[in-house]
């Protein structure tokens, strides 16, 4: 399941440009929204701007998505779960946190029939200076945290959290 493309504005909003109100909520919400709610997160969609696909704001307790892509949502919720488990995370683009979130996104996505392995490979390699051996080391050294995040997700899905 992918969000896919959808119109940014309703047809009736295009007659009078001053009346346009930006709405960017997908018709179908991604899986794991129940976990976002359990974590007390606000999830919203903003206009795409080429800078990012989305982000998790630990201070405001919100996820902002700029694309209709479950993999991006899984990535951002992985950040939120890591924050919950560890009590804090670093701001910005920390290599370990990005690798953790993307590997979790790939695994969770595969459980929902979403194949983002190619994107995950490129993403992890980019954070590993395009060095395959370094990429494996980055995953390996963070496997415990990846496992804890997956455990949290599965426990929530089983009603244990």
Protein architecture, described:
About 45% of the residues lie in helices and about 5% in strands. Helix 2 (about 70-85) packs across helix 6. It is built from 6 helices and 3 strands; from the N terminus they run H-E-E-E-H-H-H-H-H. Strand 2 and strand 3 (about 60-65) form a beta hairpin. The protein starts with about 30 loop residues before the first helix and ends with a helix. The mean pLDDT is about 90. The chain has helices at about 35-40, 70-85, 95-110, 115-125, 130-140, 145-155; strands at about 40-45, 55, 60-65. The chain is globular and about 50 Å long. It is mainly α and about 160 residues long. Strands 1-3-2 form a 3-stranded mixed sheet.
Helix content: 40-55%
Low-confidence stretches: none
Q: Could you give the order of strands across the largest sheet?
A: 1-3-2
Counting DSSP E segments of at least 2 residues, the number of strands comes to 3
N-to-C series of helices and strands: HEEEHHHHH
Mean pLDDT: 88
Describe the largest sheet. Answer: 3 strands, mixed
Cα-atom radius of gyration = 17 Å
What's the shape?
globular
Q: Determine the structural class based on helices, strands and strand pairing.
A: mainly alpha
**Strand portion, in percent?**
5-15%
How far apart the termini lie comes to 26 Å
Our count of helices gives 6
Which labels suit this protein?
3 strands, 161 residues, 6 helices, globular
Question: Layout of SSEs?
Answer:
Blueprint: H1 33-38, E1 42-45, E2 54-57, E3 62-65, H2 70-86, H3 95-111, H4 117-126, H5 132-141, H6 143-157
Parallel strand pairs: 1-3
Antiparallel strand pairs: 2-3
């Amino acid at each position: 399941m992918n969000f896919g493309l959808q119109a940014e504005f309703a047809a009736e909003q295009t007659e009078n440009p001053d009346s346009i109100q930006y709405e960017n909520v997908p018709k179908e919400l991604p899986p794991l929204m129940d976990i976002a709610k359990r974590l007390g997160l606000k999830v919203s969609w903003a206009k795409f701007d080429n800078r990012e696909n989305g982000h998790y704001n630990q201070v405001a307790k919100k996820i902002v998505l700029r694309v209709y892509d479950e993999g991006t949502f899984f990535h951002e919720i992985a950040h939120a779960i890591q924050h919950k488990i560890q009590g804090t995370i670093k701001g910005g683009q920390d290599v370990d946190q990005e690798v953790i979130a993307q590997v979790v996104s790939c695994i969770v996505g595969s459980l929902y029939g979403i194949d983002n392995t190619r994107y995950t490979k490129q993403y992890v390699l980019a954070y590993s200076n395009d060095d395959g051996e370094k990429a494996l080391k980055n995953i390996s050294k963070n496997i415990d945290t990846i496992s804890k995040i997956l455990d949290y997700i599965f426990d929530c899905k089983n009603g244990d959290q």
